[in-house]
Amino acid sequence: MMVNVTARSVTYVSDCGLNCADKSENTDSDLDDLFDSSNTDDMLNPLDIITALFLCSDGFVQQEMALKMSMCQFSLPLLLPNCDTNQCTLMLWAMRDIVKEYRPSSLSESKGFIEDRIVLSKLPMISFVRLGECSLSKSEILNKLLTNSQQHHETFVHRNMECGDSPRRISNGLTEITWYLPCGNTNIDIFSEPVAVANLRGDIESFETQYSFLCQTSAAVFVFFDHLDSECSLLTNQNRKAQIYLVGNYESKRFSKDVLKKVQTKLDLTKNNIIIKTKQKNDADFVKDLRKTVRDAVENSNMKITIEQMADFAHELGILVDEDSPECQKAKKNAEEVTGEIQDIHRFKEDQLPRQGEIWKDLTCLEKEEYRLQKVGSKNTEDYKSDLHLKKEELRKKQNSYDMLTAMTCFINAISSPGTERFYFLKWMRMNLDNVSRIKLSELREKYKEKCKNPENKEEIKEIDRQISNSSLGTEHFFREMGQIYEASLSLPQTDPARQQLQHLPKLCAELLLDGFPLELVDGDASNIPLRWVSDVLSQLSDLVSPNRKIHVVTVLGVQGTGKSTLLNTMFGVQFAVSSGRCTRGAFMLLIKINEDTKKVLNCDFMLIIDTEGLKSSELAQLDNSYEHDNELATLVVGLSDVTIVNIAMENSPEMKDILQIVVHAFLRMKEVGKKPKCVFVHQNVSSVSAHEKNLRDRKLLLEQLNEMTQAAAKMEKKEENKSFTDVMEYSPDTGNWYILGLWNGNPPMAPVNAGYSEAVYELKKHIIQLLRNSESSVKDILEFKEWMKSLWTAVKHENFIFSFRNSLVADAYMKLCTEFNKWEWEFKKEMYTWVTNAERRISNLGKVAVKSESSDMREFLTSLKSEASTVLSTWETRLLENLRQYFKQTEGHVYLVEGYKEEFSNSAKSLRKEMERSVFNQLTAEAEIKEGMAEIEKIQKSHTQEIEKAVCALIDECRKKNLQMGDTELENEFHKMWSETLKKLSFSEQKTTNVFTSVSHYLRINLTYKGSHACELLSQKGLQDCGKEPFNYTSENILHRARHAMAKWFNIQDHINAAQKLADSIIDGCTQFVREKVKRKNNYSDTYIQEILHIIDEKLQSNQDVKTDINFEVSLKQHICGFAAREFQKMHEDFIQEKDPYRCLMKNKEKFRDDFIDVFHERDQCQKKAEEFTNRCLKPAVEDFISRCLGPDIIGEMLTCEQFSTRMSFHYSVLLDLLSKDEFMHYLEYIQNHEEYVKEVIEKKIVEHFSTVSKISEFEDRHLQSCIKSINDAIKKAKTGKSDDLKTFVEDIHKELGDKLVISQDALGAFMILNKANKEQFAHWLTECVMVMAEDLRKEYHRLNFEMKLQHVHVQPQNEFFNKLVGCGKQCPFCKAPCNAGGGAHTEHFAALHRPQGLGEYNVAKTQELVTGICTSCVNTELSFCCNATKNEFHPYKRYKEIYPDWKIVPDGSLEASNYWKYVMTKYNTAFAEVFHAKPATIPQTWKNITKDEAEKSLKMSFRN
Predict the structure, then answer these.
(1) What distance in Å separates the CA atoms of residue 605 and residue 1461, rounded to the nearest whole number?
(2) Which own/partner pairs from 1384-1388 qualify as long-range (CB within 8 Å, at least 24 positions apart)?
(3) Section 77-105 average pLDDT
(4) Which spans in 2-77 are helix H?
(5) pLDDT confidence of 802, banded at 50, 70, 90?
(6) CA nearest neighbour of 626 among 366, 634, 803, 1422
(7) Which residue(s) pair with 79 in the sheet?
(8) Which of 227, 236, 1024, 1128 is buried most, with the most CB atoms less than 10 Å from its CB?
(9) Is-contact 163 309, C-beta < 8 A?
(10) Residue 579 — pLDDT band, cuts 50, 70, 90?
C-alpha cells in the first residue's frame, strides 16, 4: 500500500458520463448549456469512497489505511457510520498504530520532543458540527484553520474540491479526526500545544448519537449554522461537558439576529462563544478570529482525553468499538500477559529471555573463532577447535538448563492460535513493546542530554549509551529467543522429550512468514544468523508452499536513518518497523506473494524483501569491529539479492566513501563466486524535478568514487585485474541512479507526504521489476535460497572471503557442468573410436577385392585418412565448444555460478581434440605399418598356395588316368607323396625379424637429444638390453639431496627421493599397462608404440613439475621403461613373424588340402562342407572381432549412466562410502598409500559387479550379432542376384559387400578358395543355414562365458578409459595427499572435496614424532607455518600457501564438520597408522572421539553432495 497524497483525488466516471462528453463535443451546444450546473449525480464523493473502503476492510487493512492517510495529513474516520445497520463504530483499533512526534512550546528551548501513540495521547479535542443547512463550508474553513497560507493543505474533503459537491450516499454521520501538532517554532506553529480536531459530516439533528459523543469527549464544540431554532432543544438537552461555540453566516438569508440572542441567553453564552462571518470580514479575518477562539478554548479547558478513553463513552451511547471483537480482545489479553509486567526492559530480557544476550554473543564469538582461528597461536589447530567446540556445547547446555519461562510460554501459545487472533496478538505485542521502549528511551535520552553537558562524565555517558542499546525490545527479541530455544534443543538427543516438544516452532514461524510478517535474518545485536533456526524455518516454508516455488530477492543498503525501511514499505506495501528511535538492527526478510500477471513477467512466485541495518551505525561506531560488521552484513545481503538498492541520502557526507567501499567489496566478492546482482543507487531528499539532468556531474563523480573504491577493494581482495566498477558489474551512470524527492512536503510534524515521493518510488519499482525480468541469473526456489544463505554466511565468517567461499549451489552447478561435459566428451570419444575402427578395417582390406574405391598406395591412402580424421575431429571440437557455449547461455541450473570455469572447460575441449588427434594418427600409422609389413608375407603365401593347388590338380588328373578304384587311404598316400615333393621345390627363406631394441634405442636417443649432451652421455653408459630387468629404484647422487633425505626424518617432510620414486612408479604403471594392451592384441610391432610410450612419460613429467627431478632421473626412468617395453615388443614381434611364417601357414592347411583333394577326386558334393568352412574359418572370427570392438564403448556408455561414474566427485564419493561400509584398516591404508592401484581395482570391480547383475551385456552382444547376421544375409542375397559365374566370384562379391563392416582373414579366405568346386546356388543355401547355426552357437558361447573373460577380450578397455576419466590429473593435496577432484582435462587449479588430517599423509611432529592431526582446510586459515622441500626447508605461513603451491585451491572447512569422515578413520585406527608410518600415535582431540560412523557418512555427503 503506497503512500500517495493524490490518492483521494481519484475520480470515478461512469460510462454515461463518457458518452455524454463525446456527444457534447460532436454537436453544436447552445450557449445556455454553459450556464447549466454540471451533473454530479454520477460522480462518487471521496467521503463515500473512504467510508466504503473502511467498511469493506478488515481491522488490519483499516489500520494500514489509517496510518497511510495520517502520513498524508488526511483526516481519519473517528466514528464510522454503517448505513445498513444505522450504527456507527469508534475506529480505535484502526488508529492504534499511528505514532506522532511533536514539540510543544514547553520543550522548544531544550529541543526535546514528545513521541507517542496517538490513541494514547491525552489531548484536548475540538469538534466542529453543523446544525441544519449552512452556507459556509465547514470543512474548507477547517483546512484554512489548520494550515497557514504558505503551506495550505486539504486535510478535510469539502464541497469546493473535485467531486466534493457530489451527493453523499453513505458517509453522512461520518465523524473525522485529525491533529494539529506543533514543531516548537513560534513563527510556524498555529497552535503552540497539540490539539485534536473532529468534524461531523451531516446535520446533528440527524446524527444525535455522534453529536452526543462529541459533546462528552470534546473540550469545545463549534456549531456551524445559518438558521437557529429559538427552542434550540438539541443544543440544550445534551449531557455535554464541552463548551459550545456558535459559528454563523450573517450574509445568509435565513440568518436571524434575534433568534441568535435568544439562544445565547438560553445557553448562557458569552460574546466570545459566538463567531459571525459578516460582509466586512473576509475569509482570512474570519479564520483568524476562529483560530483565536479555538486557541482560547484549548487553553481555558481542562478537558483532555485519549481516544482509548473515548471507548467508555462510546459504550454508554451504544456506539460500537472496533476493538471489541473477541479475537482482538483475547489477543490483547494475551499480549498484556507478556508485556504487562515489564518495568525494567534490561531486567526483563535477562530474566525472561535469558538464552540471547551474552550467551548468544559468546556463542557467536566462538563460532567465528572456529572459522577464523585468530587466537590459535602455537596450539595444535584441531585441539584448539575441539576446545572451542566443547565451549559451545557448554553454552548450549547452559541454554538448555533454563526453564521455559512465563513470557515465552504465553508468546508461543499465542502465536499458535488461529489466524486472525494470531495477527492481532502480534500487532498488540509490537505496539505494547514499542510503548514500553519509547518511555524508557525517552528517560535515557534526557539523562544522556544532561550528562553530555559535562564532558567529564565520559564513563556515565558510555553506560547510558549502552543502556539505550539494551533498551530496545520488540517482537524480534521473542522470536530470537524462540530460535535460541530451538537451536539449543538440537544439541539434545533426538529422543529427548524436550527436543521433540519444540520441533513445531519452525513451522509456526514459516506460517507467519507466509502471512507477510518479517523474520529476523541477521541478529543485529550479536551480528550472527541462527543458521539452523532460519534454515529450518525456510525448509518448513518450502513445505507449506507448492514444490519448487521460485523467488526473487530485493535488498536495500545504505546509511542509518536514510529511510530505507520507508522506501521498501512504500514500494512494496510491506510493514517493516519505522518507529523513531527504533531503527532496523541486523537484517529482516519479508515474503510477498506475486499475483498471476506479475508472475508471468518475473517468472517467480514470491518476492523476498530484505531490510537491513544502516551502515556506519552510530550505535556500533564505538565498537572495534563495526567496519567488519558492516562488511559482513553488506556481503551477505548483496550475495542473497538479485537486485540491491543502495540508498544514498547524503552525497557529500564524510561517511559516503566508507559506505561505497563496503558496498563495492560486497559486489566484488560476488563477482568472484559467479553471482551477478544488479545494483541501483537511489538518491533521496532531492528537491529539484530536474535533478537527474542537473546532477550529471555528480553522477560522474559517483562513478569516479566507485572506480576508486573498486581499485582499493580489488587490492585488498588480491583481485587487481578489476580496475573499474563496471568490471565488477553492469552499471550505467544514467540508468543506475534514481532521484527521489524528500518524503515530507514541508516541516514535520504537520507536513504531508510529498506527492512526488510515491510517484518516484513507483517508477523505481517498475525499473526494479524490469531488472528482475531481464536478469540472466537462475531464479532460486526456497530451498536453494536456504542453501545459498547458509553457504554465504559460512563464507562471510571467514576473514578471507574469496578463498573460502564454497556453497552447495556452486558445487551442484559444477557437478552438473562436469556431468554434461563428460557426456559430450564421451560422445566425441565414442565417435572417434567408431571412426578409427572403420579406418583400421579399411586399411586391413586395402588392395583386396573387397575394398570398393580406395587408393592402392598405402602412403597416399594414409594421408587421405589423416585428412579425413582431422575434418571429423574439427567438427566434433566445434560441436563440443558450441555445446559449452549453449550450456552457459541457459538460465536454469545456476550456470552463472560456474562462469569462471568456462575457459577451463573450453581449454579441456581443445586439449581433448589434440590428444584424440595424436592418438588417432598413431593408430592409423601403426595399422598401416603392420599392413605394409604383411604385404611381402601375403605375396609369398599366395604364391605357395597356388603352387600347391596346381600340384593337387595335377595329382587328381594323374590318379583319374589310372582308371583304378582308389580308396581314401591310397589317395592319402598319394597326397603325402605329392606334398613332400612340392615342398622341396618351393623356396622357404627364413623370415627376417626386426631388432626392436635398435629401433627403440633410436627413438629414445632422439627424445633425449633436446635434453643436452649430458643426457646422451648418460644414455651411452648402459645398454638398453640391460635395462628394465629389475624393479626401478631411484637414488639421487646429489649430495645436497642426500643431506635433505637425512633431514627429512627430523623435519618430517616427504623428501625428494620418496616423491620421485612415487612418480616413477606411477609412470611405470601407466606404460606397463600400455605395453600389455598392445601385446595382448598379438599384432606386429610398430614404431608408433615406443613413440607413444615416450609421450606418456614426457606428459607425466611435465604435469608433475612440483616433484623436483634431475636429468639422471629422467634418463634412468626412460631407459628402464624402454628396456622393458623393447623386450616385450621384441617377443611380440617374433611371435607374430612365426605365426605368419609361409611354411607354417601351409602346414596348418595341409589336412584341409588333403580332404579337399579326396572330395574332388570322388566328385562329392562340397556345398555344405564348404559353407561350414567359410562360416567357421572366415565369417565367425570376423564377427567375433567386430563384437569385441563394439563392446568396449557399449560398456563405457552403460557405466556412464551410473551416477558414481558420471563425474570424478561422484566416483570419489562412492569409493569413500564403500571404504566406510567395509571399515577395515587395510583398505584405508591401501587407498591412502596406493591410491591409483586401489582405484583401478575398484573401477574394474564396479564394472564387473554392474554387468554381473544386469543383462545389458547380453543385449549389447545380441544387438551387434544381429547386425552382423543381417549384413551377411544381405550380402548373400545381393551376391546371388549378381553376374558371378563361379563360386570364387560369388564369395568375392560377398567379401566386397562385407568389407565396410567385417575384416575377413586373408589366410582363411585364400585357403577356402583352393579346390572349391561347389555349386553356387547350393553353396548359397547352405551358407545361409550355417550362418544361422553360427549365430546360435555364438549366443550360447557368449552366454557361457563370464563377464571377466569377456572384459579381457574387448578392444577398448573400459577400466582404462574410466581410470583416466575418474582419477583425472592424479594430483594430490601437497599437505594431506587427498586426490584432486577438479573436472575437465585442462583445469589449471586443483582442489579436493575432502581433505584429511595430515598424519594420514605420513606427516608427524618433528620433536615428538607423533602423527599430525592438523587438517589443511583449518591450517590455511591460521597463522601456523609449514616446512617442506618446496619451501627449501624454511617455515612458510599456511595462509600464503598459494605462493608455494599456486595451482592448488584449499578451501577452509566451511561446515567445520566436513572432515569428520577422516577424523573418524584416524581416531579409530590411530595406533595402526602410527605403526605403519613408523611414528607415534597422534594425540586425538576430544571431540573427534565422539564422532560416530553415521556422522562420518553424513560429513561425506556434505562434502560431495551438499
Answers:
(1) 39
(2) 1384/818, 1384/821, 1384/901, 1384/904, 1384/905, 1384/907, 1384/908, 1385/908, 1385/911, 1385/912, 1385/915, 1386/904, 1386/907, 1386/908, 1386/910, 1386/911, 1387/901, 1387/904, 1387/908, 1388/904, 1388/907, 1388/1447
(3) 92
(4) 15-26, 46-56, 59-71
(5) very low
(6) 634
(7) 90, 175
(8) 1024
(9) no
(10) low
Angle at 1184 between CA 1179 and CA 1189, to 5 degrees: 125
Strands (DSSP E) along 1378-1433, which ranges? 1425-1426
CA dist 228 and 247 (Å) reads 11
Distance CA 1018, CA 1115 (A): 7
Q: What is the pLDDT of residue 1198?
A: 87
Calpha distance 1370→1363 (Å, rounded) = 10
Is the peptide bond preceding residue 194 cis, with omega within 30 degrees of 0?
no
Other C-beta atoms closer than 10 Å to the C-beta of 1446 total 10
Span 1387-1402, average pLDDT: 84
Cα-Cα-Cα-Cα torsion 1296, 1298, 1303, 1305, nearest 10 degrees, comes to -60
What cell numbers appear for 539 in the block?
Answer: 525448509
Mean pLDDT computed over 931-938: 68
First CA to last CA distance, the chain: 40
User: The whole model's pTM is what?
Assistant: 0.72
Q: Which three cell numbers stand for residue 138?
A: 465547514
Please give the C-alpha separations between residue 956 and each of 945, 963, 964, 1038, in angstroms, as whole numbers: 17, 11, 12, 79
- For 238, phi then psi, to 5°, come to -75, 140
Residue showing cell 599430525? 1412
Kindly state the cell numbers that stand for 32.
445556455
Give the tens place of pLDDT for each residue, 599-638. Answer: 888 888 899 999 887 665 554 444 445 556 777 888 888 8
For the packed helices 1235-1253 and 1358-1367, what is the interaxial angle rounded to 10 degrees?
Answer: 130
**DSSP state string for 1228-1277:** HHHHHHSHHHHHHHHHHHHHHHHHHHSSHHHHHHHHHHHHHHHHHHHHHH
Which own/partner pairs from 98-101 qualify as long-range (CB within 8 Å, at least 24 positions apart)?
Answer: 98/66, 98/67, 98/70, 99/434, 99/579, 99/580, 100/70, 100/179, 100/181, 100/749, 101/181, 101/580, 101/748, 101/749
Q: Is residue 1049's pLDDT more than 50?
A: no
Residue type, 931: K
SS3 1413: coil
AA identity, residue 1499: S
Distances from the Cα of 1132 to the Cα of 922, 1005, 1089, 1269, 1349, angstroms: 19, 23, 12, 33, 22
Q: What is the pLDDT of residue 962?
A: 66
- Phi, psi of 1022, deg, nearest 5: -145, 130
All three cell numbers of 1246, joined, read 564396479
The radius of gyration of the chain's CA atoms, rounded to the nearest angstrom, is 47
pLDDT tens across 1274-1314, in order? 888 888 887 766 777 888 888 888 877 888 877 666 656 65
Quick check: helix, strand or coil at residue 61? helix
Looking at the chain, the whole-number percentage of residues with pLDDT higher than 70 is 83
DSSP 1415-1427: BHHHHTTSS-EE-
* Dist CA 1501 CA 238 (whole Å): 80
Q: Which residues contact 309 (CB under 8 A, 6 or more apart)?
A: none
Q: Is pLDDT of 307 > 90?
A: yes
CA distances from 1501 to 108, 432, 1458 (A): 66, 47, 9
- Of the given ranges (121-135, 443-457, 1413-1427), which has the lowest mean pLDDT? 443-457
Provide mean pLDDT across the span 1355-1384. Answer: 82
The string of DSSP codes covering 1136-1153 is HHHHT-HHHHHHHTHHHH
The cell for 123 is: 489531548
CA dist 635 and 662 (Å) reads: 8
Residues 749, 183 contacting (CB under 8 angstroms): yes
